[in-house]
Design goal:
Chain lengths: 146, 223
């Protein structure tokens, strides 16, 4: 988690949910820490991006993450044909709901990619961190919700 | 099935402000089928409400339960323990379920989380359309199994009206098929167009929503 005192620099905490088939070989086994300077990020590997449901995405944000970045396969290369398309629609709905409650649509996003190495994942998380920077830390930080 | 859709989240949070502990209660039957009030929707709405209320500075604890049917007393009874620990219930059941919970737990504030909209069928994933208006005097035998009460914008018994668009679409909502065009096509396919020439007399609406609460009594089933 990344909020310190009121004068501290905001270091966004990003959760990257990535389809296993969007990753380059060996990345999943190299650990879940995607942190870099000015960024806290964790990788969670999914069997398919379509396994993600809106309620899971919202629960991650409820527990204090500043943003969730979903990664699914490009159109036409999903092993389950429509998996990444379903994920895209779910992320779109989650963004709409987050907008309705004034939490910020940018706290959820989806990207389609293949052969993501560690460097590309960190860059993607950094872009998401930059997008949520203006929103500031999640109001749920330190909530302790089980 | 009975279909419903979430009320605006701002309306829900406005209801819940000031409460200490709230139960979001789902129903695993009709409203689960239409993706409005089943367990999945309960578990989606709950974190949203927690986040929305926290952002507004309100400290409201939200707990969740989903029962098989909120319209049957034995399932409503399953909520007894948790309702005793909260000061409000947000029910995602249809209007029947919401009233059953409110009747069983009349000392607790019970709010609707959804607007119940119609009796509908799932045409395809993500699309539900009304098929029955529960008018109490079914005309489907005369209209080849297609209901003009629920599916015609004007509930015409002698259609179609003069406003049907080319391609058989409704003039009120072009997303909808003109049901009287479909009735005509089905009658023609059955070689029964003559039956449509007969004038159907004005419907007796006293079996519908007029005349107060509907009651159905079966003495043979009463205890």
């Amino acid at each position: 988690m990344s909020r310190d005192g009121p004068d501290s620099v905001f270091v966004p905490d990003i959760v990257v949910l990535c389809c296993q088939r969007s990753l380059a070989a060996g990345v999943a086994e190299a650990g879940d820490d995607l942190g870099a300077e000015g960024l806290e990020a964790r990788l969670v590997v999914l069997p398919c991006s379509s396994k993600l449901r809106e309620e899971q995405l919202l629960r991650i944000l409820e527990r204090g993450a500043d943003a969730v970045q979903v990664v699914g396969c490009p159109e036409g290369s999903c092993r389950f044909q429509v998996g990444s398309r379903m994920a895209e629609k779910r992320v779109a709905r989650a963004r709409d709901l987050l907008g309705q409650i004034g939490f910020g649509e940018e706290r959820a996003s989806m990207e389609r990619a293949r052969d993501m190495g560690r460097r590309e994942l960190v860059e993607l998380a950094a872009r998401r961190a930059e997008a949520v920077g203006p929103l500031g830390p999640s109001p749920m930080k330190g909530d302790g919700t089980p | 099935m009975i279909i419903a859709e979430w009320k605006p989240i701002a309306e829900l949070t406005a209801r819940l402000r000031g409460h200490r502990r709230v139960l979001v209660a789902g129903c695993a039957t009709c409203v689960a089928e239409c993706a409005a009030g089943g367990e999945r929707e309960v578990e989606t709405l709950a974190p949203l409400l927690r986040m929305a209320l926290r952002k507004e500075g309100h400290d409201v604890e939200i707990v969740t339960r989903t029962v098989e049917r909120q319209c049957e007393w034995e399932f409503v009874e399953e909520l007894a323990g948790v309702v005793g620990e909260v000061d409000a219930v947000l029910s995602l059941a249809c209007g029947i379920g919401i009233q059953a919970v409110a009747e069983r737990y009349e000392e607790t504030a019970v709010y609707p989380g959804v607007n119940t909209t119609s009796l509908a069928i799932r045409e395809e994933p993500g699309l539900w359309t009304a098929r029955c208006a529960a008018c109490g005097d079914c005309v489907l035998a005369e209209t080849f199994g297609l209901c003009p009460i629920a599916r015609c914008a004007k509930s015409l018994l002698n259609g179609p009206c003069g406003g049907t668009h080319a391609g058989g679409k409704c003039e009120v909502n072009p997303d909808n098929d003109c049901i009287w065009c479909q009735i005509y096509e089905r009658a023609r396919a059955r070689g029964a167009l003559d039956s449509l020439v007969e004038v159907r007399r004005a419907k007796d609406w006293k079996t519908s929503s007029h005349g107060g609460q509907k009651r159905m009594v079966r003495e043979d089933l009463r205890s």
